[in-house]
């Protein structure tokens, strides 16, 4: 009976199925991401906080991404495995994996909560909280109110290591800048990059939602041996991801000032506004490739290619994300921090092309 009830995954048009599953994922991720965005908008427009508050929010933000990383690791992995099991006619294994995933999520949440509370001060320091006294004070205060991110499902990828590198390079090379090396402007780069990351979070929420919505469809069809349908869905997904990235790119390149004024720019110096516009246009200039890369990562996972997906994601976030965030500022100062994002996305896409090609090839046989 259960097998018959799931057969529509192998029979309905893949475009219809993608919309059916992806739209709820996108909405849930956007709600979570918007929660964080609205939080920062209120902080920025509080006259007693301003850029200090935004900088503090940026310091704490990576800690929420750690929680997301664990949730995605367990949730997406379980979803892919369950779908493959159902497609191959093994509902018993699917049921067991769901129970195991729930238990693992609860255990991980408890452990993460304990670690955050015990190591609060060193964690805030690692993510750049010591840029100045006021930012660190507000970071500690903020930490005890959105600190764990367990209930906030942020659509961020495993960017924690890169965020740590970026935040510390901002602190280091901002101090060498003739403008931001002055005490009254020191927090501006940290605040601005945090805002840019939040916009990126919104876009990636859509990209992740699109791909996550495909997981049960892909898994079921692969389990049922229907590779042609899985191949058509892959094409549709990559096209949709590219379209999302193109729309985001248009917004940040053409309308950066309206975006930054949402975050309290009216009460800030001209240096804040100029650096914000500059940051939006550079840091997010490869949004199309970032979205396509994300779709490819998750689709590979849905196919059961966990090793390839994990390696590609690790190369993007740790190898490229961290190394370029540390290396490029040596030659380009603060601009080097901004260029680390597009350079990482371009190089990751070069690698992803080979995996995309091999995936299409495997789905033809």
Could you characterize the architecture of this molecule?
This protein is mostly helical and 365 residues long. It has one domain (26-357). 81% of the residues lie in helices and 0% in strands. It contains 15 helices and no strands. It has helices at residues 2-5, 8-11, 14-44, 50-87, 91-118, 120-126, 133-143, 160-174, 188-223, 227-254, 256-261, 270-283, 287-302, 306-332, 334-362. Helix 10 packs antiparallel against helix 13 (287-302). The longest helix has 38 residues, at 50-87. It is globular, with a radius of gyration of 21 Å. 49% of the residues are buried. The model is unreliable at 147-158 (pLDDT under 50).
Beta percentage is under 5%
Give the count of structural domains: 1
The succession of helices and strands, N to C, reads: HHHHHHHHHHHHHHH
Please state the CA-atom Rg, rounded to the nearest Å: 21 Å
Membrane topology: Multi-pass membrane protein
Transmembrane segments: 21-43, 63-86, 98-119, 142-166, 178-196, 202-222, 234-252, 280-302, 314-332, 338-356
Protein name: MATE family efflux transporter
Pfam families: MatE
């Amino acid at each position: 009976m259960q097998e018959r009830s799931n057969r529509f995954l192998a029979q309905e048009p893949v475009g219809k199925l993608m919309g059916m599953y992806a739209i709820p994922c996108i909405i849930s991720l956007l709600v979570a991401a918007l929660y964080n965005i609205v939080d920062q908008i209120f902080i920025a427009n509080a006259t007693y906080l301003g850029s200090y508050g935004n900088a503090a929010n940026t310091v704490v933000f990576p800690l929420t991404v750690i929680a997301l990383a664990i949730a995605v690791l367990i949730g997406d992995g379980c979803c892919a495995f369950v779908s493959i099991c159902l497609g191959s006619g093994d509902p018993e294994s699917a049921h067991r994996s769901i129970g195991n995933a729930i238990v693992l999520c609860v255990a991980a949440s408890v452990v993460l909560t304990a670690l955050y509370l015990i190591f609060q001060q060193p964690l805030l320091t690692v993510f750049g909280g010591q840029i100045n006294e006021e930012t660190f004070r507000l970071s500690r205060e903020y930490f005890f109110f959105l600190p764990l991110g367990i209930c906030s499902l942020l659509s961020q990828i495993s960017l924690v290591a890169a965020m740590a590198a970026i935040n510390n390079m901002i602190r280091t090379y901002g101090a060498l800048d003739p403008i931001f090396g002055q005490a009254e402007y020191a927090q501006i780069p940290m605040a601005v990059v945090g805002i840019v990351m939040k916009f990126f979070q919104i876009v990636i929420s859509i990209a992740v939602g699109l791909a996550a919505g495909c997981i049960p469809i892909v898994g079921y069809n692969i389990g049922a041996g229907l590779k042609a349908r899985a191949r058509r869905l892959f094409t549709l997904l990559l096209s949709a991801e590219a379209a999302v990235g193109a729309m985001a790119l248009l917004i940040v390149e053409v309308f950066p000032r309206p975006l930054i004024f949402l975050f309290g720019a009216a009460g800030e110096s001209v240096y804040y506004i100029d650096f914000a516009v500059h940051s939006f246009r550079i840091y997010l200039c490869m949004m199309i490739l970032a979205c396509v890369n994300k779709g490819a990562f998750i689709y590979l996972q849905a196919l059961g290619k966990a090793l390839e997906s994990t390696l590609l994601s690790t190369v993007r976030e740790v190898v490229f994300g961290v190394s370029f965030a540390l290396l490029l500022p040596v030659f380009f100062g603060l601009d080097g921090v901004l260029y680390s994002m597009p350079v990482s996305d371009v190089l990751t896409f070069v690698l992803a092309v080979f995996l995309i090609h091999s995936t299409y090839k495997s789905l033809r046989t």
